[in-house]
Write a structure and sequence with these properties.
disordered C terminus; TraG_N_Bacteroidetes; alpha+beta; 862 residues; F-pilin_assembly_TraC; TraG family conjugative transposon ATPase; elongated; P-loop_NTPase; 36% helix; 9-stranded mixed β-sheet
Length: 862
C-alpha cells in the first residue's frame, strides 16, 4: 500500500509576496500572473489572426533569455441555470419564463485564460521532469534573494504586458493577491486548478493509485513536446470547413482545435522558454563539424547537416528568436467512461492538426504538478522542443466564448454558435462604448429566411424591457403578438375603418413640434405629391393651427369642453379664421383659403372620409408602448394609404417629443409603397439623422437591399445611417453577394461571417436559425432559438397560425394566450387534447375542461 502524503507539505508554492504580488515557488522561481481576455471566437478574420500572432511574438521578444511564459486555458463544463428570482423574471410575462425553462440545464463550456511569466531561479534546461518538487526539494540561489532581481523582473514583465495590452487585440488583468488566493467571495487560482473547477474553493488532493485522479475526476494528459510529433508546417490560422463555402473562407485559430472546439472539460497548457540563440548556434556548429567528419559513412549525417544549416541561417539571416516549447491537454470527468471518451476525442483533434498524439502515461502527475500556476520551471528539459517563436505561438488558443451575458436589461434572447443562451444588447451597450453613433437598424433577409420571426422575438423583448415600438406592417405578421402584449392594432376593415385624431390635445396647448407636425400633415393633405408650397402658404397653415388651439383654450375658459379633432378644426377654419386672415392682411394671392377648405372637405363630418381624422378612440397612440399599423387592406388605396402613412409620421414625431426616458422605435416592415412616396422618404431621412437626439430608433425590414437602392433619399436615410444590421440566411444569393457587399459596404471579414449563417448547425439542438448582427465593423452570428410557447406566439406559417386561431375559437373561448400555451403542448382543435398518465383529460388554466367538439369524449395528442 502506497504511503499517503499531505498535499500541503508537498505544495510547491512558498507564498504570494505581499508588496509585489509575485507568486514565489519553493525553488525561488518568481511569477507574475495575469488573466487574459482573448477575442471572441468565430468573429476574427485572417488578418486579425496575423495581428494577434504578431502581438504575441513582439511581446515575447522583450523577455530575456531563460524567462518562461505559461498560458493556461481552463475549459469547464457547466449548465445554464435561469435566475428565476431576478427582478426581470419576476416582473416578466409567461413567454420569458417559458424561454428560460426551455434553456434550463443547457450545457455550455466556461472558459478562463491565465498567463504567467516566470523567472526561474535555476535554468530549466538543467532540470528534468524527474527532479520535480513533487519528489524532492531544491536550494535557493543567492541572486533570487536580491531585491534588484525582483525589480528587474517586474520591469520586464510590465513591458511584456504593455505590448499585449496596448495592441487592443487582447486585454491583460494583473491578478492581485486576493484574486490568486481564495478570499471568501471568489475561488482562488490554486483552488480552481486543484479542484478542476471554477467555483469549488476546496484544495483537493490528488490520487496516483490508478492513473491521475484529481478532485475525484479521472484525467488523461496528451503532450506535444517532441519535434518528431510536429507536422512540417504550422500556421496560426486554418480554414473552418463547416462554416466555409465555395466562395468564402471562414478562419479559425490553429490552437482553437485544442481550445474552444473541444467541447468538454479540459485544460490546455502552452509553454515557452526563451532560449539563448547564440549559444544554441555555437552548439550546432560543433555538431555540424562532427556530422561532416562522418558524412561519408552515413546519409543521415548529410540530412542532419542540411537541417542544422537551414536552422542557423534562419537564426542569423532573419533574426529568428529560438524558444523551447511544450503543449499539453488535460481532459477530465468524474465518470471514467466519459473521461475515456474525452481522451479518444482529444487524440482525434490532435491528429487533425497534423500532430502525433502522445498520451502521458508515466509522467502525467509530474506534468500536472509542473503546470501549477507559478511552478512551470519544473517542466523539465525532456518536455521541451526547440523551435522558433513564431511557430511556437501559432499553436496558442487565441479565442474565447461570446462575452454576452446571460442577462442584460436591454437584451434580446439569442444563443451563441454552441447553443449557450445569451442576452444581446444591440442598442444601448454599443452606443455607450462608442461602437455605433445612433440606434437605427435594418433587417435584411430573403423570403423564408425568418425575418418576421426574428422581428417578433426582437419586438417582444424590447417591449418586455419597457421600450415603445410603433410598427408599420403589410401582411399581418404581428397580430398575435400585439394581442398577447396588449398593444393597439390599427387596421382597416369594412365594418371597422381605420381612424386617427392628430388634433387631439388634452391640455389644448401642444408643443411647437406637435403643431409643426400637424401643419405638415395639413400641407400634405392639401398639396399633390411633388407640388411645391410657397412660404406664404406654410406661414398661413402654421398660423391657422396656432389660432385654432388658442380658440379652443378660450372656449374651455368660457366653460365649454371642446373636443379637438379635424371637424372642429375645419369648422374653425371655415367660420372663424377668415376674419383673422383678413385682419392679418392675408390675400387670396398668398393663400387660397377657399381652395384649402374645398380640398380638405372630404375629411369633414359625414363626407367620404369623415371618419379618418376624427377618432375618439385612437387619441392616445403616441402614449401607447406598442402600436401596429397594418396596411395590407389599404396598401393600394389612393387616399387612405398615403394619409395613413402621414398619420404614422405625425404620431411618431409627437411621441418622440412627448415620451421621455425610454427608447422610441419606429419599424417599417415591408411597407415599400410608402417609401416610394417623396414625403415619406424625406421623413425617413429626417428620422435617420434626428431621432437619436430624442432617444429614438428607426428600423427597416426588407427582403432585398435592392428595394432600398432605387430611391436615393431612402438609401441615404437607411443604409448609410443604420449602423446596426441584422442579416439572415443569404446562401441563395451567394453568387450575387459581391453586389450586397458593395451596397451595404461590407468588409471581406463580414461577408465570410454572413455566408456562414445556418452552416454547421447542431442537429442535436431544437430547431433554430442563425442571424448575423453587424455593429459598425463588428460582426457575429447568433442562433435564434425559443421555447415552443414563444414559437407559437411568433410563427407566421399559415398552417400554424390557423391551428392556433382555430384552437382559441373552438376550445378556449377566444382566449389567445391559453390557445398558444395549449398549442405548444400539442393541443389541436377538433376536441383532441393531451391526456395525463392516468388518461384523464387535462384541464385548462382556469380549471375547466374544454368542451369536446364533434361528439368527442376523450382527448389525446394528435
Amino acid at each position: 500500500m502506497k504511503k499517503k502524503k499531505a498535499l500541503t507539505d508537498l505544495f510547491p508554492i512558498l507564498c504570494i509576496d505581499g508588496p509585489t504580488g509575485f507568486i514565489v515557488s519553493k525553488n525561488a522561481d518568481i511569477t507574475m500572473a495575469f488573466e487574459l481576455q482573448a477575442p471572441e471566437i468565430f468573429a476574427v478574420s485572417d488578418t486579425e489572426y496575423d495581428a494577434l500572432h504578431d502581438v504575441l511574438v513582439r511581446a515575447a521578444k522583450v523577455l530575456p533569455v531563460g524567462y518562461m511564459v505559461h498560458k493556461q486555458d481552463l475549459f469547464i463544463e457547466d449548465v445554464y441555470t435561469p435566475a428565476f428570482e431576478s427582478e426581470f423574471l419576476r416582473s416578466s410575462n409567461y413567454m420569458v419564463w417559458e424561454n428560460e425553462r426551455h434553456f434550463s440545464d443547457r450545457p455550455y463550456l466556461r472558459h478562463r485564460c491565465y498567463l504567467y511569466v516566470t523567472r526561474p531561479a535555476t535554468p530549466p534546461l538543467k532540470r528534468t521532469s524527474g527532479q520535480s518538487s513533487l519528489l524532492k526539494r531544491h536550494l535557493v540561489p543567492k541572486e533570487m534573494q536580491e531585491s534588484r532581481t525582483w525589480a528587474e523582473f517586474g520591469d520586464v514583465v510590465n513591458q511584456f504586458a504593455a505590448i499585449v495590452q496596448d495592441s487592443g487585440k487582447m486585454k491583460l488583468h494583473r491578478l492581485t493577491p486576493n484574486e490568486l488566493l481564495d478570499n471568501g467571495e471568489q475561488t482562488g487560482l490554486f483552488q480552481r486548478y486543484f479542484s478542476l473547477s471554477l467555483d469549488d474553493p476546496t484544495l483537493h488532493d490528488i490520487d496516483l493509485t490508478d492513473g491521475l485522479t484529481v478532485a475525484g475526476q479521472r484525467t488523461y494528459t496528451y503532450t506535444l513536446s517532441e519535434l518528431d510529433d510536429f507536422p512540417n508546417e504550422v500556421y496560426n490560422s486554418a480554414r473552418l470547413e463547416q462554416f466555409s463555402t465555395d466562395s468564402s473562407h471562414f478562419p479559425i485559430s490553429t490552437g482553437s482545435a485544442l481550445g474552444m472546439l473541444l467541447p468538454f472539460n479540459h485544460i490546455y497548457n502552452q509553454v515557452l522558454l526563451i532560449e539563448d540563440g547564440h549559444a544554441l548556434t555555437n552548439q550546432l556548429v560543433k555538431e555540424v563539424k562532427r556530422h561532416t567528419s562522418f558524412a561519408a559513412w552515413s546519409k543521415e549525417n548529410e540530412v542532419s547537416i542540411r537541417s542544422k544549416d537551414a536552422f542557423m541561417d534562419e537564426v542569423k539571416d532573419r533574426n529568428r528568436r529560438v524558444v523551447r516549447a511544450h503543449y499539453n491537454v488535460l481532459v477530465f470527468h468524474r465518470d471514467p467512461d466519459v473521461a475515456d471518451t474525452y481522451r479518444s476525442q482529444t487524440a482525434a483533434a490532435i491528429s487533425k492538426l497534423g500532430f502525433k498524439p502522445k498520451l502521458a502515461s508515466h509522467d502525467a502527475e509530474t506534468l500536472f504538478w509542473s503546470c501549477i500556476p507559478g511552478n512551470i520551471a519544473e517542466i523539465g528539459a525532456d518536455n521541451l522542443a526547440t523551435c522558433f517563436l513564431e511557430e511556437a505561438t501559432a499553436l496558442w488558443n487565441t479565442e474565447t466564448n461570446y462575452r454576452d451575458d446571460f442577462f442584460c436589461k436591454n437584451g434580446l434572447l439569442l444563443t451563441d454558435r454552441f447553443g449557450r443562451p445569451c442576452m444581446v444588447d444591440p442598442f444601448f451597450g454599443p452606443m455607450e462604448r462608442g461602437i455605433i453613433a445612433n440606434r437605427n437598424f435594418m433587417v435584411v433577409g430573403p423570403s423564408g429566411s425568418g425575418k418576421s420571426f426574428t422581428m417578433n422575438n426582437m419586438v417582444f423583448y424590447l417591449l418586455s424591457h419597457g421600450m415603445h415600438i410603433s410598427l408599420v406592417d403589410v401582411g399581418g405578421s404581428y397580430k398575435r403578438l400585439c394581442a398577447l402584449m396588449g398593444g393597439r392594432y390599427v387596421t382597416y376593415e369594412p365594418d371597422n375603418p381605420i381612424e386617427f385624431n392628430p388634433f387631439y390635445s388634452r391640455d389644448l396647448d401642444p408643443d411647437e413640434e406637435t403643431k409643426d407636425a400637424l401643419a405638415n400633415l395639413l400641407m400634405a393633405l392639401w398639396k399633390k405629391d411633388g407640388e411645391p408650397a410657397t412660404k406664404a402658404e406654410e406661414v398661413t397653415i402654421a398660423n391657422i393651427v396656432h389660432e385654432y388651439y388658442g380658440a379652443m383654450r378660450r372656449a374651455r375658459e368660457a366653460g365649454d369642453e371642446p373636443f379637438t379633432c379635424f371637424d372642429s378644426f375645419y369648422e374653425f377654419t371655415r367660420d372663424t379664421y377668415p376674419a383673422i386672415f383678413a385682419r392679418n392682411m392675408g390675400s387670396e394671392r398668398e393663400f387660397n383659403l377657399n381652395n384649402f377648405l374645398y380640398v380638405l372637405r372630404p375629411f369633414h363630418a359625414d363626407n367620404q372620409y369623415g371618419y379618418l381624422l376624427n377618432s375618439r378612440r385612437n387619441i392616445d397612440l403616441m402614449e401607447l408602448p406598442f402600436v401596429v399599423y397594418e396596411l395590407d387592406n389599404i396598401k393600394d388605396h389612393p387616399v387612405l394609404f398615403p394619409i395613413t402613412t402621414i398619420m404614422i409620421m405625425n404620431t411618431y414625431v409627437r411621441k418622440l417629443f412627448s415620451v421621455k426616458g425610454v427608447l422610441k422605435m419606429l419599424i417599417i416592415e415591408e411597407a415599400w409603397k410608402a417609401l416610394a412616396k417623396e414625403n415619406f422618404a424625406h421623413f425617413l431621412r429626417w428620422c435617420s439623422k434626428t431621432v437619436r437626439k430624442h432617444l429614438g430608433s428607426l428600423g427597416v425590414v426588407t427582403q432585398e437591399v435592392d428595394d432600398l437602392v432605387g430611391n436615393p433619399i431612402v438609401k441615404d436615410a437607411i443604409i448609410n445611417n443604420s449602423p446596426i444590421k441584422f442579416l439572415l440566411d443569404h446562401q441563395n444569393y451567394e453568387k450575387r453577394f459581391p453586389e450586397i457587399m458593395q451596397t451595404l459596404s461590407l468588409s471581406e471579414k463580414q461577408a465570410d461571417i454572413i455566408l456562414s449563417i445556418n452552416k454547421g448547425k447542431d442537429p442535436n439542438r431544437p430547431p433554430y436559425n442563425d442571424l448575423a448582427l453587424l455593429l459598425g465593423d463588428y460582426c457575429k452570428v447568433y442562433g435564434l432559438e425559443v421555447s415552443r410557447t414563444a414559437y407559437g406566439t411568433f410563427t407566421t406559417e399559415r398552417s400554424e397560425v390557423e391551428q392556433i386561431n382555430e384552437l382559441a375559437k373552438v376550445a378556449y373561448g377566444n382566449d389567445l394566450e391559453s390557445a398558444v400555451k395549449g398549442w405548444a403542448r400539442g393541443e389541436r382543435a377538433g376536441g383532441y387534447l393531451p391526456v395525463n398518465a392516468q388518461g384523464v383529460p387535462m384541464l385548462h388554466p382556469n380549471g375547466r375542461a374544454p368542451k369536446p367538439v364533434n361528439g368527442a369524449t376523450h382527448y389525446s395528442k394528435p
